[in-house]
Amino acid sequence: MTDKTETGDFYALADALPDNDQRLLARLRAFLATEVAPTANEHWIHEEFPYELIGKLGGLGIAGLSYDGYGCAGRSSLLDGFVALEFARVDPSIATFFGVHTGLAMGSIYLCGSEEQKRTWLPAMARFEKVGAFGLTEPEAGSGAARGLTTTARRDGDEWVLSGQKKWIGNATFADVTVIWARDVADGNVRGFLVEKGSPGFTPTKILNKMALRTVQNAHIELRDCRVPESHRLGHADSFADTAAVLRMTRTSVAWQAVGCSIGAYERALDYSKKREQFGRPIGGFQLVQDMLVKMLGNITASLCMVAQLSRLQDAGRMTEEQASLAKAFATTKMRETVGLARELMGGNGILLEHEVGRFVADAEAIHSYEGTREMNTLIVGRAITGFSAFV
Hints:
Belongs to the acyl-CoA dehydrogenase family. Residues 245-385 form the Acyl-CoA dehydrogenase/oxidase C-terminal domain. Pfam families: Acyl-CoA_dh_1, Acyl-CoA_dh_M, Acyl-CoA_dh_N. 51% of the residues lie in helices and 16% in strands. It is of the alpha+beta class and 392 residues long. The strands form 3 sheets. Strands 3, 4, 5, 6, 7, 8 and 9 form a 7-stranded mixed sheet that branches. Strands 1-2 form a two-stranded antiparallel sheet. It has a two-stranded antiparallel sheet with strand order 10-11. Strand 10 (277-278) and strand 11 (281-282) form a beta hairpin. Helix 5 packs antiparallel against helix 8 (240-275), helix 8 packs antiparallel against helix 9 and helix 10 (321-345) packs across helix 12 (374-386).
């Protein structure tokens, strides 16, 4: 058993997983340590994605982990959460790539696709032979996407014509398929479409000069009379409620990513405190440093207990939207505090990438915002507990 004083899982929650699940996590940890960690800083600095990683991920059996059938493993949401955590504790950018592909893109097809669409896409995506992206956010519609979506879909015989723009779309510069959400001009309902790479009228442009998740290849997408066959319209996506069902499912994963990002910063700060000496002794022996470490560990432990229970509720089919929103809001807020304490503990060295914590501090800002800001998730929970909607 791993010494829990050396990791962020202080209450040994992962030990409750079955042995075969723990073995999968051990294989993933070894993979991330050898294939991702050594070059994470370099890819982040240069805003480059390690494309050679994609084929290697296919052999791990972790894409669509909690989905049943269609080449997916049918394992628990709890295990899926720990997988997201492991990615984020090493590199939140790769965790985001993975979450977009396996959660948002595959999840849209799994929840909203027809049987034919599931059979066509999910097995190849589970093997990472095809990579997915998810296009909801627009330049002028982020938190207000439910009402403010301006990308349109117009039926023209056996085709749909998509027009509009999308922004911040992870993986979209190279994805084989992008799920585009657009408003049907005929009835105003939001529908989902599978747009394949290279489709005429579909132009993704890489967004440059980000301060967070620099390895993620986010795109600004132009849709100019992009024609999509009726067979590529998601068969069971007929309103924004269907879009929201995908987001509710994946919001759990983002909360797990926040815990992983916190653990990544904490473990690096803990290691630094044992090696860095001032006044003739390791700084880990000073009261103020120990106080910061314990605050970080408390944040992590509270968040990890919350997301683990959330995943158990998800496995039992009892998770609600407000429960997912509370976990996302809480875990990301505690993440911000935790990575800040890790950087503070390192003093000036905390801003040097060689110590890695600065990368976690920057990446935490993106995790804090995407898949619903703290404020929006607070309003979802507030509506549930008071019975009053404070949305505009």
